[in-house]
Design brief:
With 391 residues, the chain is of the alpha+beta class. The chain has 10 helices and 13 strands. The chain has helices at residues 9-42, 60-97, 142-163, 214-217, 222-257, 269-272, 276-279, 314-322, 330-333, 344-357; strands at residues 102-106, 110-112, 115-117, 121-126, 132-140, 168-175, 198-206, 211-213, 285-286, 292-293, 362-364, 376-379, 389-390. Strands 1, 4, 5, 6, 7, 8, 11, 12 and 13 form a 9-stranded mixed sheet that branches. Strands 2-3 form a two-stranded antiparallel sheet. It has a two-stranded antiparallel ribbon with strand order 9-10. The longest helix has 38 residues, at 60-97.
Length: 391
Amino acid sequence: MIVLPNQSPVRHRRSASAAAAAGIAIFSMASLAHAAKDAKAVAPAAPPPAVAPAAAPTGAAATAATAAAQAAAAAAAEAAQRKIEIDTARARCTALLATINAVTIAKDPIEDGSCGDLAPIELVSVGKNPQVAITPPALLNCDMAVAIHNWVKADIQPLAKKHLGKEIVRLETMSSYSCRNAYGRTMSKLSEHGKANALDIRGFATATGQTAFVLDGWGMTSGEIRAAAAAAEKEQAARLVAEKVQADARARALAAAKPAPAAGQQPNPIANAGTLIDGLPKPAITFGNGAAKPPTDFGLTQPSRLGGPKKPDDKKSADKKADPAAIPSKTAAATPSAHDTATATSLFLRAVHESACKRFSTTLGPETNAAHRNHFHIDLARRNTNKAICE
């Protein structure tokens, strides 16, 4: 116990009790304040005011919303399927191009209505040593690129060396992909050009600059030969008619120029004859046996033989016939047909066309019609039969 100055122990004892009581009161109030503060800190936040849910669409609105959702789902599924198809087509194309020597450029899928291809390429060149440029580059599918490469390598180059003396280094094109109908069919079948499955070729060129263009080098077609023959025959017939008309006119003029005999006067054969001899009667000679020789213009008797050299000796004639050199060549005198133009370019182009018929589903050229007079058309059309079209 602490004793403070000037205070009795008892009083001090009371003062100590009061102080203790006051301290307890202060401690209690502080504890209550801290408890209230802690309770305020951990109290949960008041919940947000409730929001009423949106009313579900009904009637036409509900039907439209359902249709839109279904359409979106179908479009997403179709896009996913299309991507699979495009990726598959590209993988197949890459595998095909790996088998040939060619310069190609992959192009975006072509989807133009019923036209197009999922994995088209631009064919820039084919082959190696020499490299054959495709001028201008052709937009095709990969099957056509492979077929053209093999055709050039196995057929065209050997034929070019045979007929032109040099291999080709350029293949000139006219048309590749084009979204249109087949020639002459405005409302029906889609052209193979619309599938990037066809190529039109104008001609070829060698490294020395020699060209073989279809329009200039093919020669006359069968149709042109027939037309020329018909025109010549018509011209000949017209000339014969004109000559006959002129002869008839001259005969009528001569007849009109002769004076008519007077009444009761006999015609004078000498006057009407061209010469004095023509006007005399031809004598008939009677021999001892009573046989009469017919009248003759050459004299009193008919000649035993015509004039000219004597008949050659039989042995000499046989020797002459046995000598081949003495027999004139029928080939040299024959008139060449329009198909046999005897030019290297024509022979090359016709051989190239024939070789294409063995590799492609369709091969068209100058013999087909006037529209193909200046180019070759080749394609890989799919048909129910394996029969190729070669014209």
